[in-house]
From TrEMBL:
It comes from Muntiacus reevesi. This is Mitochondrial nucleoid factor 1. It comes from the Eukaryota. The keyword Transit peptide applies. GO terms for biological process: mitochondrial respiratory chain complex III assembly. Residues 90-111 are annotated as: Disordered. InterPro entries: UQCC2 (IPR037698).
Amino acid sequence: AASRYRRFLKLCEEWPVDETKRGRDLGAYLRQRSLARLHSNYYKHKYPRPRDTSFSGLCLEEYKLILSTDTLDEFKEMNKGMWKKLQEKFAPGDPEEKHKPWARALSCPRT
């Protein structure tokens, strides 16, 4: 859709509207007809796609699920290492607890 709109804008630049021919200007007519066709998905219906999948074989609903914020957050959580997960789980939230021996031991990474 974006490429069709860019082509529409290019057409508008190449064929300016002649203000002296209000209501009968070919440039204005082409603009209106082209924009109406883009808006109504004329070409999507005229040339339907045989399948609603991409190279990966996933459909639109599967892409929406994968790219949702919740799913991406889960992927970030899965990519964290075990040590980082333990640190976050047991790290003290209170500044006073940071001085306890177990909190200092967790905050120092092992080499």
